[in-house]
User: What shape does this take?
Amino acid sequence: MSQPSPHNAKTTVTAKSLVETRPHARQFNLTSIKKASSAISGLHDSRFRGRGMDYQESRIYQNGDDIRNMDWRVTARTGIAHTKLFQEERERPTYLVVDANDSMRFGTKKQFKSVLASKVAALLGWSSVQQGDRIGIMSFGSNGLHIGKATAGKRGMMGVISHLIKAFDSVGKNQEHHPLDQALKQLRTIIRPGSLVIIVSDFQTLGDESKRHLLQLRKHNDVLAVKVSDPFENQLPLPALYGVQTSQRAKVLNTQLDRTQKAMRERQSRHIQALKDNIIKAGVPLIPIQTSDNWVSTLKNGLTNPALAFSHWLGANG
Assistant: This one.
C-alpha cells in the first residue's frame, strides 16, 4: 500500500477518530467481567481483581484481626500490638500497552492495523475512565519505548490520544523492531499491583521473554491481550502479483509461486504457535480482531468470551 496521507483516516491515526470511540464505551464495563482467562484445557481461571487497597491508619490490635496486617514498626515503638487498616482504592490504574512497530502500518481492508489498534486502545481507555479508573499508556516500536503516566478523567484520555497520535505519526528512523518482551520488562518496573494491563498488538515481535514477563505481571495484575491483524496475513491470498509498500521500499509479492505460498503458510503456522506458547499458556485472554471486522461488536463479544473468540479465529485461520 502507498505511504499514508496525513488526511486519510484509514491509514493515519487522528484525534477525531479516537474521540469518536467514546460513545461506544457505554457498551463496555470492564469491572463486570468476572472470569478473564480462557477456558483452554490445563489453564486455571484468572479473575479481574478489581481495585487495590490503600493504607489508611494503624490501631491497637483486636481479637480476630488478620495477623498478616500487623504494623510491626508501630508495635515495636509503642510496645502495644497494632494492626494496619486499609481502604479500597478509589482509582485503579489501567495501562494500555500499544504496539507501534512498522508491521502495524499495514492493511488491505478498511484500515491499517495501526488505526484499528489505536481505536481499540482509545475505546478501552474511555471505558476505564468512565469507571473512575486512571488511564496510562506505553507504546513500543521503531521510534522507541514511551510511557504516559496513569492519570484520571478526561485529562488522562487526552494524554492517551496525544500519545497514540505521536506514536504512529512517523516511521521509525532506525527501522528496528522493538520486541514486546522489552516493553513488558519496563512496565513491570512502574506498574502498581491491582492494575489492569491491556496489550494491543499484532504480536509479530513477541520476544523470547514475553511469556515469563506476562506470568510475573499476572501474579498481581489483570492482563488482557487484543490481537489486531489483516485478512491478507491470516488467509492465503489468491494467486496473483501484489504490490506491497514497506517503510523502506516498494516490492512485488508473487503468490503464484509455490514457494511463496509455502512460506506464507509456514509463517502463519509459526505465528499461531508463538501466540499459544507465549500468550495463551501464560493464562492471558487473547481477543483477535481483523481490520475488516465490525470491530466494536467483535471486541464486545470477545470480552464476553475470549476463549470462544480465539477458538473461532483459529478455526478460520489456523
